[in-house]
Write a structure and sequence with these properties.
By secondary structure, this protein is an alpha/beta fold. It is about 40% helix and about 15% strand. Helix 3 (about 70-90) links the parallel strand 3 and strand 4 (about 90-95). The termini are close together.
């Protein structure tokens, strides 16, 4: 095993600080992780980049929850958000767009790649909904993306490891295939070994109680899903460090 890159999915400034202290290589900055992540505000992007230190910061570009089929207005928002992220100093952007028949939206994705210019581009887990993954992989490579985030079209990256391994082989170094989805300190080494990947994406989060105190359980701020309103999901330095320790032990064992 060679050295690995650990990307931590975060939703705020403190998450970047914790990821940096724990030894991560990169963060993906999002908001609204409960719905799979949305584009963070420009204020959050600016503050996180300022606090990230040595960490590279990639910004999620996803204007709403739900599917990845975007209309003209949503496409314009995505292009504007990429411009804001670039202007604020982001090292990369993360996006994906599909057509209604579960294919890559080549026209929109090419516009998004072109707008990204010199910064890194990751095609996100919209890929896990495509009908023909190997054909889609070739299209994403042709678009000029640097990286593909995928769970192998399964519930978790561990379950999707056979497809991910096939994608790594098919990419043949033309693009980085990065497993993500259910990755944690207990299965990270197994996923790396099973897929041949060199990068991993995980949230490494934990629940932290709010300082507010007692909760009025009759009031909900969201829709049908009711997580504890006053609990916080935060980045865990301990979980990141544990993942890195497990990987490093395996590297030493293989040397």
């Amino acid at each position: 095993m060679t050295a690995r890159v650990l990307e931590i999915c975060i939703d705020g400034v403190e998450g970047a600080r914790r990821a940096a202290r724990a030894g991560a290589s990169r963060v993906e900055l999002c908001s609204a992780l409960l719905v799979g992540g949305l584009t963070p505000s420009t204020g959050m992007v600016e503050a996180t980049i300022a606090a990230a230190g040595h960490l590279r910061v990639h910004v999620l570009i996803r204007p709403r929850a739900g599917d990845f089929v975007y209309d003209a207005d949503e496409s314009a928002v995505m292009l504007a958000d990429i411009e804001h992220a670039r202007r604020l100093g982001a090292d990369g952007v993360v996006f994906g767009a599909l057509t209604a028949d579960r294919a890559i939206d080549l026209e929109l994705c090419q516009r998004l790649v072109d707008a990204s210019m010199e910064i890194s581009v990751t095609f996100h887990r919209a890929f896990d909904l495509v009908a023909h993954p190997f054909a889609a992989l070739e299209e994403i490579i042709t678009l000029g993306a640097d990286r593909l985030l995928t769970s192998g079209q399964d519930e978790t990256a561990l379950e999707g490891a056979p497809l991910i391994a096939g994608l790594v082989r098919a990419a043949a170094g033309r693009l980085i295939v990065m497993p993500g989805g259910g990755v944690n300190e207990r299965n990270a080494v197994r996923i790396l070994e099973a897929t041949g990947a060199n990068e991993l994406h995980l949230s490494a989060s934990t629940t932290e109680p709010s300082p507010v105190g007692s909760e009025n359980r009759s009031v909900h701020m969201g829709g049908a899903l009711y997580p504890p309103e006053l609990d916080r999901r935060v980045t865990s330095e301990a979980r990141i460090a544990a993942t890195l320790t497990a990987i490093r032990k395996e590297i030493l064992a293989c040397d």
